[in-house]
Amino acid sequence: MKYVDELPVEGKSIFLRVDFNVPVKDGRVQDNTRIKAALPTINYLLEKGARIIAASHLGRPKGKMLPELSLKPVSKRLGEILGREVKFSPDIIGERVENLKNSLKEGEILLLENLRFNKGERENTPEFAKELSKGIEIYVNDAFGTCHRAHASVYALPELIETKGAGFLIKKEIEHLTKALNSPLHPYSLITGGVKVSDKIPILRSLMRNADRILIGGAMAYTFLKAKGHKIGSSKLEEEMVNEAENIMEEAEKRGKEFLLPLDHRCVKKIDEDAKIKIMKEIEKGWIGVDIGPESEKFFSQRIKDSAMIVWNGPMGIFEIEVFSNGTESIASAIASSGAYSIVGGGDSASAVKKAGVADRITHISTGGGASLEFLSGKKLPGLMVLEKR
Ligand code: ADP
Ligand code: MG
What is the whole-number distance in angstroms between the Cα of residue 257 and the centre of ligand 2? Predict the structure, then answer.
């Protein structure tokens, strides 16, 4: 696979797939992180006098034009950050956008409207990819967080273009994740939590290969606790994953790995910031586990602190609500002060690390949740594989 600095980009029309899937509220971008992450590649291309046609998805519009998911506010913010005009095309494909692409001068940048307004994007249709490819000479992907999905702008499009490669953001991601995958340091702790249980449990088996310890928190923990016969009250449960959870714990034991579940929980009767919080080891009927408890914090932190490598995905509780964010913040602090080679992946986990004020002490904060986990589990990501094809 080639990187952008190995491609003859001077003066060329570049399709640049970026990840501008940022939170937008009332027409304003709420968080710049993902825009800033794309700057090294954008600036490099602009300096080389390339003509950039940038494109991204935003949210899940399911093939329909939804004004609240327009990328227009993102083009404005990008322009402010770059200190230069960013043109915006309300069309994704068609004659008008072709004219815009063709009129672009060297060192100019055009952002297309949300790719997912066209259902061809998610369906990876060759027709949509063909339209996107018009007027394009070189393809560059820097949207790491989307590489695990074979969508048109990530898969069918680069298949059509001969000269292609990855940007600097993807380069950095691959360097850090490859280290954790191929040269793990021990003791290696894998910490997972959050809610996307049915996404995460199936890859946990391969993900835990390198790990010496597996620590589970967040909503994810209750499926495992249920499998072990604990009382979980009305906490979030993925019933059809209970069996698999049991199998995974058996396998971990067979392979001599430590498998750690929370010892206690912060529980409420209703998910509300004013709710009365009770700490329980076995969760009573009608109560919901919303965060790991203080004893678990201590226990987890101690196992984290003497690790040499740590991979974390998924918060320990409903950290968006201040009173339920204790567990997540203490885990974030423990990781930061461990001195270990640490990788944090996932949108919510990354924002939890920032919220805890320890982002600068994490070795690598991945811009991809699903993508980084799949990479770490040893799977080849379609969006990267297609760039290797000659
Ligand atoms: P990431 O984005 O880091 O991959 P996920 O999206 O899987 O993580 O999970 C994050 C979400 O999990 C947060 O919105 C958080 O509120 C939720 N969560 C964590 N613990 C619980 C819990 N005990 N009950 C319900 N939701 C939870
Ligand atoms: Mg998330």
Answer: 27
